[in-house]
């Protein structure tokens, strides 16, 4: 069955303060964000009618906008209310929540000092990010590298940074893989195209220090879950020549949740005890079956 295009669905999207019929939430073709990537967004999941770490996502959206040089004209509290209402109006219990803020159409050059800032929240059903994910996904190596912190605003969840992610993901899919491992500008392991990465060696978790890519909320949750189980977590620079020394690997993200990795290029990993335990803990936490101070 063909997927329903995202602009041709029933329901409502919250946009600039009110609910608008889904098909009518349009922007003009001369919108600054479309030409200059002046847009920031969040990807969140709701479980059992509650958005997981909703407030942290809303705060991050505001912070991403600040990094990009604009203020969202709705407070974090107003955004929280909009997301809650959008979820309720969708009638969905488990759902994906997309908040997006962008520069509008008043100025159409590199400079857009006075453009109106818009905000929208859409909610839809989105199953697993990867088909059959607990078997472990296959990653190839990306050609593109995460840029240095003085090359791009790497801690904002900003649309422009996804240019190299889409290129890498498309190349991976074309080659028969599900995703790609991106290195950073120094040649260190960074992350996948839309998720952070963890490795296991001798019962210890190793994950790259997020100094030039998003320190994902799922990454932070995973570290807290591991610590609650007395699993040692080491955040450090990890180079590709270490891949052969790891027994397990998984990626983390709001969309991907905790997804085991079976393969990165020539290297093989087994979705083992630590990956599966943390994936289960994460699922229990999101579904309110486990308590954890975050
Ligand atoms: C490039 C990238 N890195 C990491 C993440 C993980 O972030 P989070 O766990 O906050 O969803 C995401 C997903 O939002 C992402 O797009």
TrEMBL record:
The keyword Amino-acid biosynthesis applies. Pfam families: Aminotran_4. Keywords: Amino-acid biosynthesis, Aminotransferase, Branched-chain amino acid biosynthesis, Pyridoxal phosphate, Transferase. It catalyses: L-valine + 2-oxoglutarate = 3-methyl-2-oxobutanoate + L-glutamate; L-isoleucine + 2-oxoglutarate = (S)-3-methyl-2-oxopentanoate + L-glutamate; L-leucine + 2-oxoglutarate = 4-methyl-2-oxopentanoate + L-glutamate. SUPFAM superfamilies: D-aminoacid aminotransferase-like PLP-dependent enzymes (SSF56752). Its cofactor is pyridoxal 5'-phosphate. GO terms for molecular function: L-isoleucine-2-oxoglutarate transaminase activity; L-leucine-2-oxoglutarate transaminase activity; L-valine-2-oxoglutarate transaminase activity. InterPro entries: Aminotrans_IV, Aminotrans_IV_CS, Aminotransferase-like, B_amino_transI, BCAT-like_C, BCAT-like_N, Class-IV_PLP-Dep_Aminotrnsfr. One of its GO terms (biological process) is L-leucine biosynthetic process. Its EC number is 2.6.1.42. It comes from the Bacteria. Pathway: Amino-acid biosynthesis; L-isoleucine biosynthesis; L-isoleucine from 2-oxobutanoate: step 4/4; Amino-acid biosynthesis; L-leucine biosynthesis; L-leucine from 3-methyl-2-oxobutanoate: step 4/4; Amino-acid biosynthesis; L-valine biosynthesis; L-valine from pyruvate: step 4/4. PANTHER family: AMINO-ACID AMINOTRANSFERASE (PTHR42743), AMINODEOXYCHORISMATE LYASE (PTHR42743:SF11). Acts on leucine, isoleucine and valine. Belongs to the class-IV pyridoxal-phosphate-dependent aminotransferase family. This is Branched-chain-amino-acid aminotransferase. It comes from Hyphomonas polymorpha PS728. The gene is ilvE.
